[in-house]
Design goal:
mainly beta, three-stranded mixed β-sheet, 12 strands, elongated
Length: 163
């Protein structure tokens, strides 16, 4: 196995932790910038352009989430899955986040964010608006409390700190 160090890539790497063998792990700095670019690219146009409504120094972030029901056959076994599209949302600390959740699944689906005290059940073909004010920084897991993660895939509300 080939190891890459600072001598091969110059200043493009940060020092990392040591392995059991004593060699230093190196992590490319560009990975952090690439991940940030992907997050920005995934943002709705209104979030990237700043077309939000100002509310006392913060913003109102609106996200439409559609719960989609999928049928598939894996290794000859019929299976189902439910996804939230988009699965993830981004906001800044102190913002108000408004989720408009549309259930296009034939089953009742849950919409929970435990760290923010949200636990809703949305019936088939129903739409519900869920408003969260003054969100705090962190990664908040969005999941369905009615079905296992293997059937209804979770997502995240990523709340970035204000600078």
């Amino acid at each position: 196995m080939r190891e890459f160090g600072a001598t091969e890539f110059g200043d493009a790497f940060d020092d990392g932790r040591r392995t059991r063998a004593g060699s230093t792990l190196r992590r490319p700095r560009a990975l952090g910038l690439g991940a940030a670019a992907l997050v920005v690219a995934a943002l709705p146009v209104g979030l990237r352009t700043g077309a939000d409504h100002a509310v006392a120094g913060s913003a109102v972030r609106e996200t439409v989430v559609v719960m989609k029901f999928w049928k598939a056959t894996v290794a000859g076994v019929p299976t189902i899955a439910v996804t939230n599209l988009p699965a993830d949302a981004v906001a800044y600390e102190g913002d108000t986040v408004v989720f408009t959740v549309k259930n296009e699944s034939p089953l009742p689906e849950g919409f929970s964010i435990d760290s923010l005290g949200i636990k809703e059940v949305i019936q088939p073909k129903q739409t519900r608006r869920i408003r969260v004010t003054n969100v705090r920084a962190g990664a908040h897991v969005i999941y369905c409390q009615l079905h296992p993660f293997s059937v209804h895939y979770p997502g995240n509300l990523l709340v970035l700190p204000r600078r």
